[in-house]
From TrEMBL:
Pfam families: DUF726. It is a multi-pass membrane protein. It comes from Emericellopsis atlantica. Residues 82-100 have a biased composition (Polar residues). Coiled coil: none annotated. Keywords: Membrane, Transmembrane, Transmembrane helix. Its main location: membrane. GO terms for cellular component: membrane. This is DUF726 domain-containing protein.
Length: 661
């Protein structure tokens, strides 16, 4: 099974037990919540399927080879010769005789070569998602609300939850509530077809996550907050906080007409509460557990009065009137299932496993790569991250962000480009191959400050970087100084691929982050490391680990099959940031297989779900990415940024129409 969380703890018949929420919510609210969660997860499933269903974009034939770097040239030619249209690339292609001759043949070859790999990847991605979806829906179906015998008038008040009438109808998305002779699985809040709120409390958020018409939005806000809290605890009961879980809760927040700030605050509060409870567990008690006790904890039979973590959770505010929007202690521990019944799943979520300390993991990583360390960006602990119990609970989160730099000019540069990252997630900087990156940074600075580079840049700009790469026509003065950067760049590319493989192992095999999702951000050679990491996860069919990814100025192929493969393991956003004026990146990649394109120079086409941002011309070209990370992340709509840091960064010129898709 690709991920331990699916099917562990809450999915088998032996692990299931009814969760009684009588008195907390009504049967109608329970049924409509199940209906809504089912609808959201079905839409998530369809979104995954759609990624692989887009028709392939054909490359351009150049010297009997498929050349993806021809596409930007045709785009430019099409805009000059034709008015803008939705088919700009096809219109532009018709201006090229070679494109006309090769189009049908290439399209057929691409379709045939694309089908087997992507068809298998699609099948396995959807299979994984269905398993996770069934686990979530089963936990929701296990919620029971008992309705006592009552008069029709009393039943109407009871079903509404807070004094509004109900209309009985078919329940969509779940079985009826269990328990009680009059539980009536058909109870619903509906007084007509499900509708959208007339005005959403957070319009930008609703645009990103369009709400599904439902009946719950008519409830008072406090009731909707309670339902979101119930869903949150239900998700956590699967003993992980995967990227799919985060995406589900974001969609649910939008559908319940709640502001995203409310959800994010709840996410931080619960993470701190769970981390506090985990820190209260002594490593000795975990090490003293016998193997049969560990196996038994995976078969949850429901929390009783002696649930081991109930006191700690109550102390942290979970299951109290103030901290759970009126949810009782018994109801909260019932929703949490294995997380409330055993210490080990809770500690594993934050990688607090004394049998597998992070320090030993780092020793394993150092065998393959000379320098590999995670440095926290925020909080009291700023040294290397080697002990998961060292950061205080107030600094712990349910999600991680790992940022990577692509070169170094000074030692402190490791942190400097990423000071813009906020504190909604645990932010880390990956320190990797410091010596190689310092050598590369020094070489790049030497070249871009030289007169030869200034003259060469002017010559290249007269005919575009794409023409220079395709024709291998570089100014002679640039070739004379190329030896300064070619070797450090080649060494860096090799080290980046090793770092990417090591990062993939750290996330998937060693679980240094615990059972939580990870987002990745990097520029330059670091983008190559992220690309290698994602490709490795895709090869292993490890879905649900990665939340969002931003790849900036990447020396990686732009071919859509590659990016569809990357997107298969990214549950959230996958963004390619590029510049057609990055002459240095083009020159450094002149010996690579450029027929498959260069993502750092061009838009990714034919890969549904991949976003693009053209940043235009940066002040320092490729080297300018390090000082523009905050502005770039703000431009793409990254949620978690330090606005003061971003405000002080130098602005860059975004291409017309923002270059975004």
């Amino acid at each position: 099974m690709p991920r331990g969380g699916v099917g562990r703890g809450g999915n088998s018949a032996a692990a299931r037990r009814t969760i009684d929420l009588t008195g907390c919510i009504s049967a109608a609210e329970r049924n409509d919540l199940a209906t809504l969660i089912n609808a959201i997860t079905e839409r998530m499933h369809n979104d995954i399927s759609t990624i692989f269903d887009s028709p392939p974009v054909s490359p351009v034939m150049a010297d009997d080879c498929h050349h993806w770097l021809k596409l930007p040239l045709l785009h430019r030619r099409g805009k000059e010769n034709n008015p803008p249209s939705s088919n700009t690339y096809q219109d532009a292609g018709r201006t090229s005789n070679s494109y006309n001759r090769a189009h049908q043949t290439i399209e057929k070859e691409e379709k045939e070569s694309m089908t087997p790999h992507l068809r298998e990847l699609k099948k396995e991605a959807l299979t994984f998602f269905r398993k996770w979806q069934s686990s979530i829906l089963q936990r929701v179906r296990d919620i029971s609300v008992t309705v006592q015998d009552q008069s029709p008038a009393q039943g109407a008040l009871r079903g509404r939850g807070r004094g509004a009438p109900i209309v009985r109808g078919a329940v969509r998305g779940g079985r009826g509530a269990r328990g009680g002779r009059a539980s009536r699985g058909a109870l619903t809040l509906a007084t007509g077809p499900p509708r959208l709120p007339s005005k959403h409390t957070d319009v930008p958020f609703a645009n990103r996550f369009p709400p599904i018409p439902n009946t719950l939005w008519t409830l008072p806000q406090e009731r909707r907050k309670l339902l979101l809290h119930i869903a949150f605890l239900t998700v956590i009961s699967l003993t992980e906080y995967s990227a799919n879980a985060h995406l589900l809760l974001l969609n649910l927040t939008s559908c319940l007409n709640l502001p995203v700030k409310m959800f994010l605050a709840e996410e931080v509060r619960l993470a701190q509460a769970f981390a506090s409870a985990a820190l209260d567990v002594s490593p000795e008690s975990l090490l003293s557990q016998k193997p049969e006790e560990i196996r038994g904890s995976r078969k949850w039979k429901g929390p009783g009065p002696g649930a081991s973590l109930a006191p700690a959770l109550i102390q942290a505010g979970i299951g109290t009137a103030a901290g759970s929007f009126g949810l009782t202690t018994c109801a909260a521990t019932g929703l949490l299932g294995p997380m409330a019944a055993s210490e080990r799943p809770l500690c594993n979520m934050f990688s607090m496993n004394p049998a597998r300390p992070i320090s030993k993991m780092m020793d394993i990583f150092s065998r393959d790569i000379q320098d590999f360390a995670l440095l926290p960006m925020h909080g009291k602990v700023r040294s290397e991250y080697i002990d998961a119990r060292e950061p205080p609970a107030i600094d712990r989160r349910f999600r991680l962000v790992i940022a990577l730099g692509g070169w170094l000019t000074e030692d402190e540069d490791v942190h400097d480009p990423w000071k813009c990252l906020g504190q909604q997630a645990e932010a880390f900087v990956l320190q990797w191959e410091t010596t190689a990156l310092l050598n590369l940074g020094g070489s790049l600075e030497t070249v871009i400050k030289s007169k030869a580079w200034r003259d060469a840049k002017e010559a290249i700009s007269t005919k575009t970087i794409f023409t220079s790469i395709i024709e291998s026509s570089w100014p002679s003065q640039l070739l004379k100084i190329s030896k300064i950067i070619d070797n450090p760049w080649s060494v860096g590319m090799v080290r980046a691929e090793k770092a990417g493989q090591t990062l993939a192992d750290a996330i998937s095999r060693h679980k240094f982050q615990g059972e939580r999702s990870v987002s990745l951000v990097g520029y330059g050679l670091a983008a190559r490391a992220i690309y290698t990491c994602l490709m490795s996860l895709a090869e292993r069919r490890l879905f649900g680990l990665i939340d969002s990814v931003v790849i900036i100025g990447a020396p990686v192929p732009s071919e859509p099959r590659v990016w569809l493969t990357l997107k298969s393991v990214v549950s959230g956003r996958l963004v390619n940031v590029y510049s057609e004026h990055d002459y240095l990146l083009g020159f450094l990649n002149r010996f690579s297989n450029t027929h498959f394109g260069i993502a750092g120079l061009q838009e990714i086409q034919g890969a549904d779900g991949v976003e693009n941002l053209d940043v235009g011309e940066l002040a320092y070209g490729h080297m300018g990415y390090a000082s523009a990370t905050g502005r770039i992340l703000k431009e793409i709509g990254w949620d978690d940024l330090d606005s003061d840091i971003v405000r002080n960064e130098k602005p860059f010129r975004v291409a017309p129409a923002a270059g975004r898709r």
